[in-house]
Amino acid sequence: MSSVDELLERAHVVSLPLRVPFRGVQVREAILFDASFRWAEWAPFLEYQPEEASRWLCAAVQYGYTPAPELADSWVPVNATIPAVDVREDPDVIGALMQRYPGCTTVKIKVAQKGQQLADDVARVRAVRQWCSQAGIDDPKVRLDANGAWSVPQALEAIAAITAEGPLDYVEQPCATAEELAEVRRRVGVLGGSSEPVRIAADECIRKSADPLTAVTDVIDAGACDVVVLKVPPLGGVERLLSIARAVAPRGVAVTMSSALDTGIGLGAGLEAAARLPEVGSESQAAGLATGSLFVEDLAPRPIVDGRIQAGPLIPDADVLHEFAASGSRKDWWFERLKEAYQHL
């Protein structure tokens, strides 16, 4: 493994503004490594402690210091992502966001934002459905992501209110614990005129665990989910993620690959994992790997073509890398953070 001194020598700290706030984040900070085989990204969220951040560092080092594999099919279907925007205050915001996802017919919508009400979520989902209808997308797959913010009664109320206007593909992490997810899954039933029950997806209760492989087994054993949402950085790398997907496949649980608000550089690892899911017997479905569209300007844009993005390593644009370089105290803070996380590898 590379020494911490080598990583520091290859590190570029950046600060990228978002088009609209995303779960309270207005500026995304990250370290990019000009590693020996390909550029890699390390961007644990600011509140993460060194031990948790070290898993993200492991993923970045593994990606940057291993050769890119040959992929049987390098084009990955992706979903649009809609932050918890206020559509009543800005009726045009959904159109402005959706236009950045050409060809995408699956939409993940953030809900349960602190300071908002259920009526805000219902209005946001309704606005997305209306935009899709006007754009000729007759049967969009709509996903909700509550990031564990609801109680069981709140989740059931919200799902009932939103499915009254149309079906859902699934609801991601409606509540915080596996026990709560299992209860919601048991009680949600068939809603919204769909012939199938509303699926429940697990995210935080897996990736925030110290042992994600054990956690995913426990979640499935508890009957808590139909889908697991997997992200490369918090799971410690592409190979570790694929090992979890391999364990999930025989259990009849679907896998959705997703981003941790990565830049175009960081998305490379997620796209590689998504393209390799068929190797471990997982059925491909739209991945949440188009988050580059959320940045005012990305370091390495990955164009969406007919709802898909091509996997493969990219090199950051030198001018953009220079323009959004962090310096002074922020650069020093990230370098100290890197040293602390490295001690836990």
UniProtKB/TrEMBL annotation:
What residues form the catalytic site here?
Answer: K110 (proton donor), K231 (proton acceptor)
Residue positions binding Mg(2+): D145, E172, D203
Record-linked InterPro entries = Enolase-like_C_sf (IPR036849), Enolase_C-like (IPR029065), Mandelate_racemase_C (IPR013342), OSB_synthase_MenC1 (IPR010196)
Enzyme class, UniProt record, top EC level: lyase
Report the pathway entry: Quinol/quinone metabolism; 1,4-dihydroxy-2-naphthoate biosynthesis; 1,4-dihydroxy-2-naphthoate from chorismate: step 4/7; Quinol/quinone metabolism; menaquinone biosynthesis
This enzyme's EC code(s): 4.2.1.113
Keyword Magnesium among record annotations: yes
Q: Which GO terms describe its molecular function?
A: magnesium ion binding; O-succinylbenzoate synthase activity
Return the CDD domains for the record.
OSBS
Query: What is the catalytic activity of this protein?
Result: (1R,6R)-6-hydroxy-2-succinyl-cyclohexa-2,4-diene-1-carboxylate = 2-succinylbenzoate + H2O
Q: Entry's SUPFAM superfamilies?
A: Enolase C-terminal domain-like
Q: Per UniProt, which keywords does this protein have?
A: Lyase, Magnesium, Menaquinone biosynthesis, Metal-binding
Boundaries of every Mandelate racemase/muconate lactonizing enzyme C-terminal domain copy: 91-191
- What are the names of the required cofactors? a divalent metal cation
Q: Give the record's GO biological process terms.
A: menaquinone biosynthetic process
- What's this protein's function? Converts 2-succinyl-6-hydroxy-2,4-cyclohexadiene-1-carboxylate (SHCHC) to 2-succinylbenzoate (OSB).
Family listed:
Belongs to the mandelate racemase/muconate lactonizing enzyme family. MenC type 1 subfamily.
- HAMAP family annotated for this entry? MenC_1
The protein's name: o-succinylbenzoate synthase
The record's gene field reads: menC
